[in-house]
Amino acid sequence: MKQENQDLTSGSLGKQILFFSVPLMISNILQVLFNMSDVAVVGQFAGPFALGAVGSTTILVAMFTGFLIGISGGINVLVALYIGAKNKKSVEETVHSAAILSLFIGIFVMTVGIFLSKYILQLLNTKPELMDGAVLYIRIYFLGMPALAIYNFGNAVFSAGGDTKRPLRYLAMSGVVNIALNLLFVIVCEMDVAGVATASVISQYMSAMMILVALFRSKEVYAMRLSCLKWNREKIRDILKIGLPSGVQNIIFQIANCFVQVGVNSFSATMVAGNSAAANADALIYDVMAAFYTACGSFMGQNYGAGKKERVRKSYFVSLAYSFGIGTVMGLLLVCFGHTFLSVFTKEEAVIEAGMKRIMIMGFSYGISAFMDATIAASRALGKTIIPTILVIMGSCVFRIIWVYTIFAYFQTIPSLYLLYIFSWSLTAIAEIIYFAYIYRKKTARM
Length: 447
Prior knowledge:
It contains 17 helices and no strands. By secondary structure, it is mainly alpha-helical. It has one domain (about 15-445). About 55% of the residues are buried.
């Protein structure tokens, strides 16, 4: 089999981080596009109410999937650290403990999501005409959470080892199946929201199965073996120490966005549908930028474990530059081609115009978020999670809630609601950068 792992502790960082991130970027784009296919298919073939129903679940889905992603981030940092330190025993213990932990957490998230989804959607003031479809969609979709947890685990392990190509292949194959099943279930079987949810679940289990098989067949230091599947309390603690604050942060982050959704829901169903369509751009651009945050964590983790101070610092700045650049360019392109983008999800001109109100503000804002997210990834790569989590909760969560009940409550306009993003990102970024500069000096003083 062709060697696909990279040595992250030597060579040109600019070139390495780019080549490392491109498969991640494509993987993230494909994942978003496959998720978009759910929205696009129901919007085009099942009507605006089905579109609104699926769109109304966006925050709820992001809340729980964000928790799983946070946990996998802890796995990525820890495995990368031990690979860089050439500690084979710790790599083995971490990978196998993480597999068990991921499965348990996936089952837990599935259970909580299924039983609490209707209550949370009610708290979000979901439109009555959208409620039944939203609840049906989310309950089926959450059956795939264990598979999603396993895929994220496998992706984190491969990325920590420098291999970002195999997870991309598995995601691409399962995504094609997802789109084909979307069209089959919605157009042929007329299952609307239930159809796209079922297609997502099937594709999630497919990608999880493929990535597990690859780990068991691997010859690398992070390969899985049935005889090694044991619960190591110390490694579980270390994973949770890094990943749990990130996962909880993502939940709280989405709780804050729930207040934003409440603000959106105070307008017409047309505005809700337009917001749902435009919000797909958020996932697309964020996830492209997130490829460089993963690279930041993997490169900094391996080089910190290897004791290479200069590469630790440079990994942060290179990742930040790439993420800011791609976020800015994609945001500007979205502003220019926003009408075309929205027409993928709906034929209703009124919904498109509503969606453009969001795009015209968010398109100029995405790049700013890189300063916050890249710095958080850098702090976590150095083993610091609590303070970065507190800072992002205060700056991007509490601040948003305050904004909704002050600035938005006063103006009661859609622009006054969407502007909270750029202000919260800016404030949080300043605080995170100050903290990272302090931690970097402290952690690398003896290197």
